[in-house]
Amino acid sequence: MARITAGLAVSHIPAVGAAWDLGKTQEPYWKPVFEGFEWSKRWMAANTPDVIVLVYNDHANAFSLELIPTFALGMAERFEPCDEGWGPRPVPAVHGHPQLAAHLAESLILDEFDLTLANELQVDHGLTVPLTLLFGGPAAWPCRVIPLAVSVVQYPPPTGLRCSKLGAAIRRAVEAYDEDLTVQVWGTGGMSHQLQGPRAGLINTPFDTAFLDRLSTDPEALARTPHIEYLREAGSEGIELVMWHVMRGALSAEAREVRRFYHVPASNTALGHIIFEEPDGGSEGRDTQEGSPR
Q1: How far apart are CA 215 and CA 219, in angstroms?
Q2: Tens digits of per-residue pLDDT, 112-130?
Q3: H/E element holding 81?
Q4: Alpha-carbon distance 51 to 143, whole Å?
Q5: How far apart are CA 187 and CA 11, in angstroms?
Q6: Distance from C-alpha of 274 to C-alpha of 40, rounded to nearest angstrom
Q7: Known catalytic residues?
Q8: Which conformational region is residue 201 in: left (phi greater than 0), alpha (psi within -120 to 50 degrees), or beta?
Q9: Based on the structure, what is the number of domains in the chain?
Q10: What is the pLDDT of residues 183-203, one digit of tens each?
Q11: How far apart are CA 180 and CA 182, in angstroms?
Q12: Cβ contacts of 247 within 8 Å, gap of 6 or more
């Protein structure tokens, strides 16, 4: 049967994608950002799954204020990068896994999650930037990707607890799929940032660090964080962190943290990244500093 071998979370900052596309990765400002993913890229090369369920949010490109699904699952064979106002990113199209997506849709809906099923969907930087950070610039992405869009742009977004429960339901669905597949679940977005208003430019490193710690050691309690705390401590766009709970909820209690990276600033936000590995997931090792993943 299919199995989830690992999960990871990573910020999906659009300026990071632009820096890659424009060949700025070695510039002094951007070099520390991309160097922070070298270990993760090696790990990913050694642990490339058959399929990634990639949890992200659309930024008013595929969806708008006229149609706001709370959870939308990509069902197609192919997902093209969209034009976000300056042309599509020069990255490969994403190839989906319609058979597994159909199974997920059936299982999740019968598990009482009301999904929107997207048979056509263009994907924006929320999905493509994480792929670039973990895979670099291949001619084709090395695995299938099932997009799972979560509404965090228009109030009300789902709670972290609801997202965690969705992750657990994804795990049950994957384990009920009768093809031998390795699957990873990625959560994207965050960390602390606000793009408008008097608090534009807010970065709360103590909150971000505590979030990463608790995601690793006490995810069930962390998932109960109320919306108002994200807004107060992490800024209006920090609410994207609820998507990380889908990833964490899809993992077992035995999953261990093997990599962590945090950098400020990257554009006007904090950049966060973490990898969890299941005990039987395979590994290139554990990246440690004084005994703690960093």
Answers
A1: 5
A2: 999 999 999 999 999 999 9
A3: none
A4: 6
A5: 9
A6: 9
A7: 125, 193
A8: left
A9: 1
A10: 999 999 999 999 999 999 999
A11: 7
A12: 7, 8, 9, 55, 167, 185, 186, 187, 276
Tell me which residue has tokens 């670099």.
136
E strands, 114-158, in order:
116-118, 144-150
Both tokens assigned to 256: 């261990």
| Cβ pair 56, 189 in contact under 8 A | yes
CA neighbor of 93 nearest in space, from 15, 41, 56, 145: 145
Give the CA dihedral 246, 65, 11, 249, nearest 10 degrees: 0
Domain CATH for 132: 3.40.830.10
| Burial of 142: CB neighbours in 10 Å, binned 0-12, 13-18, 19+ | middle
Cβ-based burial of 183 (10 A; exposed 0-12, middle 13-18, buried ≥19): buried
pTM listed for this prediction = 0.95
Domain range spanning residue 54? Answer: 3-293
Q: Pick out the chain residues at pLDDT < 70.
A: 282-294
